[in-house]
Design a protein that fits this description.
Layout (H helix, E strand, L loop, with lengths): L3 E2 L10 H13 L9 H19 L8 E4 L2 H16 L5 E5 L4 H12 L3 E5 L9 H7 L4 E5 L13 H7 L6 E5 L11 H4 L3 E5 L10 E5 L14 H4 L7 H16 L1 H21 L5 E2 L10 E5 L5 H10 L2 E2 L15 H7 L9 E5 L6 H15 L8
Parallel strand pairs: 1-11, 3-4, 3-5, 5-6, 6-7
Antiparallel strand pairs: 2-8, 7-8, 9-10, 10-12
Helix pairs in contact: 1-9, 2-9, 3-4, 10-13
Keywords: Iron, Iron-sulfur, Metal-binding, Pyridoxal phosphate, Transferase
Pfam families: Aminotran_5
Family: Belongs to the class-V pyridoxal-phosphate-dependent aminotransferase family. NifS/IscS subfamily.
Amino acid sequence: MNRIYLDHAATSPVHPEVVSVLTEMYTHHFGNASSIHETGRAARKELDRAREILAHSIGAHSNEIILTSGGTEADNLAILGAVYASQERGKHIITSAIEHHAVLHACEYLEKQGFEITYLPVTKNGFVEVESLEKALRDDTILVTIMYGNNEVGTVQPIKELAALVKDHQALFHTDAVQAYGTLEIDVKELGVDLLSTSAHKINGPKGVGFLFQKAGTKLRPLAHGGQQERKRRAGTEALPLAAGFAKAIELKSNELLKSQLALESLKQHFLEELTKHGVSYTKNVTVGKELPHITNIFFPGTDIETFLIQLDLAGIDASSGSACTAGSVDPSHVLVAMFGEDAEQLRSSVRFSFGFGTTKEQLTLAVEKIAGAINKPASIWK
């Protein structure tokens, strides 16, 4: 069976050109970039080149890029590192109710240590309102962390407007841009953020690498202790092959960013049109506002999502009910809870479909045929 992969928001296939870079690095550049001999210097040259490419992709300086093991570490370093470095000025942190668990669990950890967390609500379409942040800011607020693009429903937050509120405040502003990076054009200077997290495996790069943008002058307390890598901000031998593969992935994305956005929007629109054409009863969970082009979260009234996803899996379709980090959890999506409330029907009847490299309209047409078949089965299968 040829499977149809519609879960690119969870992870994405590695681009063949990225695989070639990984092979080249593992084969010919195995040196430690901290070593002073020729083999080490060659590795350092490649690492510096990768860092320059990553920095350029967001309008930053290479010195402002901290290589990490992925988005979770980048989020943790941003939040814990910034808070520990600023705790003498206050113990209040602001985030939103729809953040990725890498952010929410870091905040919960800090809460247990005596920090106070304000969780901003969102609208029924999943957006943080600028006014709610303005009201929540206090003199002792030291960090605001709001995600750029939501991984479950695809909402794109007004980061530039939100960050502007803390421009003249002591608080730092961090954004988790893991889903937005490589999909939307990002310029950290224009956004006005102090910290920004990314991950490679969402953009057809390798798993196990990401970076944290740390604006020059922004103080962070390191979380890992060891060598002096990453300008003493993140100890550990740098994973050169992964960094180089990450750089190649964002190069490929950046070279055709607008074309890719249009292609993804076209795929999404085709998918929705096919659902309508096949008589499927559905509602998009985000109906107004800016969305990521590759994600759509859909409510199918009357379906039991666990049964439905099993049906799709057996039919060769890969989709999910939300974040891959909560796979197997019986708890409803915290994002949908924040949007619709704890008793909403959407919590048990919504599916996230996400598109990307390799997705075709022909695949989506076939997928919808199978979706329609599953939904139109007798109601008894949902009991």
